[in-house]
Amino acid sequence: MIEYLINTPVASLIxxxxxxxxxxxxxDPSLYGKFMLHPYSVYRRSNVYxxxxxxxxxxxxxxxxxxxxxFYFFAFNLEATVGSLRFGLIYFLGLILSxxxxxxxxxxxxxxxxxxxxxxxxxxxxxxxxxxxxNTLMIFPLPIPIWSALFGVLYLLYSYYMSKNxxxxxxxxxxxxxxxxxxxxxxxxxxxxxxxxxxxITGRFGG
Length: 207
What we know:
Layout: H1 2-7, H2 9-27, H3 30-35, H4 39-43, H5 50-53, H6 61-82, H7 84-97, H8 100-105, H9 118-131, E1 136-137, E2 146-147, H10 148-165, H11 172-189, H12 193-204
Antiparallel strand pairs: 1-2
Helix pairs in contact: 2-6, 6-7, 6-9, 7-9, 7-11, 9-11, 10-11
């Protein structure tokens, strides 16, 4: 654990803090009222801080475990690749900007709330994909490993479709716009990432 804190301090602190606050919220439901994103309030410039705090709590153990496993597999490698400052920018801008479309979409829905770090983790995942497009991932329920770039395309298509048609109470807008934010921020803060990504793809196929 000390090695993680030394080499990837931002990812380590986010990981620990998110676990602690989420588990604490499971045992103190009053924290949800303080931390959850409430677009109706945020649009009216109240409780704006929940754009960040909503990413520190989760709705269930399964929600928390899935997000933290995804974070663990990609965030530490990404911070080691881009450095702590740029990783922090990708994560926290992903967390905030992924929620802006939800704030606009649900600005008049007093009863709508949202929580979880999925938008920020999507930003991390798609930043990782730009660096390692041909690394293979095992994604449930697919029975075979697939390239991360291919997974990224499928993820974007699925998130877009579900954001338009979903009734499952999952904030697919945050997933979609978190992914887009991760791509844009990485392009802005890492010069040469687009040629690197294209070179990796074309090199694999002899282009």
